[in-house]
Amino acid sequence: MGMNGVTNRTDELYRDDSYLKSCEAVVVEVTDRGAVILDRTVFYYTGGGQPGDSGTLTFDGGSVQIATTIKVDDDILHIPEEGQVLPAVGAKVTAEIDWDRRYSLMKMHTAMHLLCALVPCGVTGGQVGEDKSRLDFDVGDHTLDKDALTERLNALIAQDHTLETMWISDAELDNNPELVRTMSVQPPRNAGRIRLVKVGESVDLQPCGGTHIAHTGEIGALRIGKIENKGAKNRRVNIHLEG
Ligand SMILES: [Zn+2]
User: How remote is the CA of residue 32 from the centroid of ligand 1, in Å?
Assistant: First the structure.
């Protein structure tokens, strides 16, 4: 369900606007283990290699630090740090994410799309972090050149490409097979629609549920770190944000 923003009880506001830092919401459940479920949220949950958001829920009578956000079954769980007084079911809260952290994750996540676009190989894994991220490729006979890759990556950033999110139906996808050819994987299908993220006119197009910046120029300078051997044909490319 994660790709498509379909949950039973929580409206995922970041799907349409990843720059939302806070929202008003109502507590619909506090689970036995102390996780808070809201009717709407700006907190992205862990998924697609991107860590869940941390932040604060403020309510009449207190505030709660949220350590991370995860999805279990169909519910988005705001996981509080231990030993805090939680809001009651029905309470109105202001939900605010740690924006600096999220913005770094958005830049990194978007940089992953660019790297994906530059390396014509299958992705076998990845992890987005605030300062450092990595993407693993099954390179086959392809050789990765660290300096050339860094240069091309920074060129895509400097060109300041626009990112767009599009929802398309299963039928639209079936009627536009050329769309599928540009994707490295078959898109997940759920609830009859698919979220696509498009970078520039033709830089990258793929199904993605994550959070992105609006223009690649926001990333600033990037550096490719080590390219590690992880098996005969697997290479791990490490990326660092500069500044
Ligand atoms: Zn993405």
Answer: 33
Say how many Å lie between the CA of residue 60 and the centre of ligand 1. 36
**Nearest CA among 36, 93, 23, 21 for reference residue 66:** 36
Contact 114, 153 (CB under 8 A): yes
Helix axes 146-158, 99-118, angle to 10 degrees: 120
Domains of the chain are: 2-97 (2.40.30.130), 102-242 (3.30.980.10)
pTM: 0.89
Phi, then psi, of 12 in degrees rounded to 5: -90, 95
Q: How far apart are CA 60 and CA 43, in angstroms?
A: 20
In this predicted structure, the answer to whether residue 4 has a pLDDT above a threshold of 60 is no
Q: How far is the CA of 123 from the centre of ligand 1 (A)?
A: 13
CA 122 to chain centre: 19
**What are the backbone angles phi and psi of residue 68, rounded to the nearest 5°?**
-165, 175
